Amino acid sequence: MQLFHTIQDIRQYVADKRAAGRRIGFVPTMGYLHAGHLSLVERGKREADIVIMSIFVNPLQFGPNEDLDQYPRDLERDLQLAETVGVDAVFAPSVREMYPHQQLTFINTELLTDNLCGASRPGHFRGVTTVVGKLFNIVQPDKAFFGQKDAQQVRVIQQMVADLNMPVAVIGCPIVREADGLAMSSRNVYLSPEERRQALILNQSLTEAQKLFEQGERSADVLTDYVSRRIQLAPFAKIDYVKLVDLQTLSDIREISGESLLAVAVRFGGTRLIDNIVLQP
Ligand code: PAF
Q: Mutation test of ligand 1: which of 26, 27, 30 has the most ligand atoms closer than 8 Å to its C-beta?
């Protein structure tokens, strides 16, 4: 596995692979890898010849009161994990390499970023689309793999790629969960043992709502009220949102008639966790 810190070096690597006819798969991450990231690499290995992973904690997508400084980082550990699943090259640039001067150009996807996490984290998706656009320009992948836990992020990046004619297929991959159902997230390390225990309510309440849906329930109010009430039983939980949205538009719906996303964001202490489930009638 090769490690690159500069744009020039990763570009040269990509140019050589492309000249040899290799299809490039790309897994963008902010590091502190877990099994969810590794599953994206495994998918990439199946669908491309070369898998490049980026590890970059992108300051642009963190708000002023968010956890940029505390965000867990451990490049040595990440490199070892990446190697175990067969990543071919890691691109781990510095902030100065990615943002050498004041960034004056941004990618902003409208409407899809108004609801859900976009409403609670102003500017977050502008930071995500801008850095992912830059990374796509640098790595020039054929396919890029993202976790469906960040369902809004997947949808927004798919829209960006379509709107800006970027020649990359954006592939959303299933959520990977701990044995007890907690969705894998680099932020899970922040949770105290008690917070972590209570956080299981996210997956449990979504799974129960899915059962209601399978029994015929279609009302957004009924499903979101059910999930909210279940989550509120966890004393440490502070709900940011519980929403049922159309999977394409990400706008609120009253009744499920097409593919829909039941999504939650909940704080446990200082840690904001998200989870979701797709409901397909
Ligand atoms: O999902 C993430 O880890 C980040 O938002 C991403 C896509 C790597 C952009 O910084």
A: 30
Domain 186-279 class, CATH top level: alpha beta
According to CATH, the superfamily of the domain at 2-173 is: HUPs (3.40.50.620)
Residues of the chain with CATH 3.30.1300.10: 186-279
Decide if 34 is catalytic.
no
Is 176:47 a contact under the CB 8 Å cutoff? no
Ligand 1 midpoint to CA 175 (Å):
15
Q: Is 242 helix (H, G, I), strand (E, B) or coil?
A: strand
Indicate yes or no: pTM above 0.90: yes
Q: Relative to the CA of 54, which ligand 1 atom is closest?
A: 8
Instruction: Label residue 82 by pLDDT band (50, 70, 90).
Output: very high
Look at residue 113 in the predicted model and tell me its pLDDT: 98
Q: Three-class SS of residue 19?
A: helix
Predicted confidence band at 96 (pLDDT cuts at 50, 70, 90)? very high
d(CA 198, CA 250): 28
